[in-house]
Every structure is written in structure tokens, then in C-alpha cells.
Amino acid sequence: MGEKIIIAIDGFSSTGKSTIAKLLAKKYNYIYVDTGAMYRAVTLFAKQNNFVGKDFLDKKGLVSSLKEISLSFQFNIELGFAEMFLNGKNVEKEIRTLEVSQLVSKVAAVSEVRKKLVAEQKIMGEDSGIVMDGRDIGTVVFPNAELKLFMTASADKRATRRYKELIDRGDKVDFKDILFNVEERDRIDSTREDSPLVKADDAIEFDNSDMGIKEQFDRICALVDRRIV
Ligand code: DC
After folding, report:
1. Is 31 helix (H, G, I), strand (E, B) or coil?
2. Is 36 in the pocket of ligand 1 (CB under 6 A)?
3. What percent of the chain has pLDDT above 90?
């Protein structure tokens, strides 16, 4: 097997980045890092401490408490991926609620939050053999990644996938709220001042609106194989 590389996967919300990233990590025996989970965990902390809510963001309060936030991933053998821990507590389920999704883009736009998380992400990539997904991986975290993918799909398709995920795990949600959230997050993530979601010049774009997981995965594996020979 050839050398280990860094695979950066960016794109709009609910484009299936993490599904592909997990499959790649398994196949190539790489570490998978879900950076969205890190922003979600900081958002959960902010919500619990009343720094963020539907109509407000106490940026000063949040920034001054950032040093109290300790994030870690712990691999769950049964699930086959690493779960997010916030200050020692498994928050994997709590960070996936619609409520956190509705607040996360506001928190992720705070430069100090990004600075802290990007620094932690860069350290995780020191030993290559990593698949990282998010919004700024190919542009900011690993501008030198050997393979950069940029995933897109229609908002309707993405909202349908996310809706199904939440319903399957027992959450009571309305489709129209999910669609609104998907579009609203895209808007905030793409227009924020600090490291907005943009396709890196050298990223390969994947529109998977009409592509199944298997076809996507096969195509992406071919790209990876070309990079690691
Ligand atoms: O990938 P996700 O949907 O779980 O990410 C949640 C939010 O976190 C997303 O709407 C924007 C933010 N995010 C970010 O700003 N930068 C990243 N690298 C990853 C996520």
C-alpha cells in the first residue's frame, strides 16, 4: 500500500460528506474526523451556558469561556466511528438535534471559536492517513491536502436525507423546518467573514443529487487510489 494522505471533504450541509468519509476511513484504515461535530459540541456548550439562543449570541461570554471547553473523539467499536465528547461526556446524540443545527452556524461564525477548533484539527492531521470533513478543510485547515472533494446536492434532496435520519432516530420534526435549516445554514456558512464555505480551486466537485452511495464511493476510491500510488 502506498503512502498515507490527507483527504479533505467540504461541502454544503447534509450532502453525505460524513457517510463517504466514514467509508473511506474504513477502507483505507484512516482516521476520520467530523469537524462539524466539534462546532456542534461548542454550540451545545454555548446553549447550556446561555451564550446562544434563537435570537441572541453572547459572543463575549462564549469567547471568554472557550478555555473551559475540552473536546475529544472516542472510537466506538460497535458503531465503527468516533463519538464526540464534550468535557468528558458523550454528546453524540445531543449535538445532532434540530435545535443545535439551528444555532450552530451562528457559533461557527465566531472567529475565536474557529481559531481554537482549526488549531486542534491541524494537530490531528500531523500524522497523515486522515479523512476530515467540514466546510473549510481544503481551504484553511489543510490547504495542502493531497485530495480535496467538494460535495453538493439540491437542497430538497439534502433536506429529505436529513429528515429521514432524524425521523429514524425518533425525533419529531417537520420537513419544512429541516429544509429551511439546510438552506439557512448554507447561507450563513457561505457568507460569513471568517473562512466561508467555498470550493478550493483544486477541489473536485461532486454533485450527488442523483448518485447513490456506491457509485459515489467507487468514483472517489478511484481518485484516492490515484493519489496514493
Ligand atoms: O457538518 P455539519 O452539518 O455537522 O456541521 C455543522 C455546522 O458547523 C455547519 O453548518 C457549519 C459549521 N462547520 C464549520 O463552520 N466548519 C467546519 N469545518 C465544519 C462545520
Report:
1. strand
2. yes
3. 93
CB distance 158 to ligand 1 below 6 Å: no
**Cβ of residue 181 lying under 6 Å from some atom of ligand 1:** no
Strand order in the sheet with 6-11: 31-34, 130-134, 6-11, 147-152, 204-207
Structural domains in the chain, sorted by start: 6-228 (3.40.50.300)
pLDDT at 80: 87
Atom of ligand 1 nearest to the CA of 189: 11
Ligand 1 probe mutation, 135, 161, 184, most atoms within 8 A of CB? 135
Q: Could you tell me if the CB of 13 is within 6 A of ligand 1?
A: yes
Helix (H, G, I), strand (E, B) or coil at 82: strand
> Which residue matches cell numbers 471533504?
9
Identify whether the C-beta of residue 12 lies closer than 8 Å to the C-beta of residue 197: yes
CB 109, CB 194: distance < 8 Å: yes
- Cα–Cα dist 157/154, whole Å: 5
- The whole-number pLDDT of residue 1 equals 56
What tens digit of pLDDT does each residue of 30-59 get? 999 999 999 999 999 999 999 999 999 999
Residues 6+ apart with CB under 8 A from 129: 4, 5, 28, 29, 30, 31
Report the helix count and the strand count for the chain, using DSSP H and E: 8, 10
pLDDT tens digit sequence for 120-158: 999 998 888 999 999 999 999 999 999 999 999 999 999
Q: Is the CB of 136 under 6 A from ligand 1?
A: yes
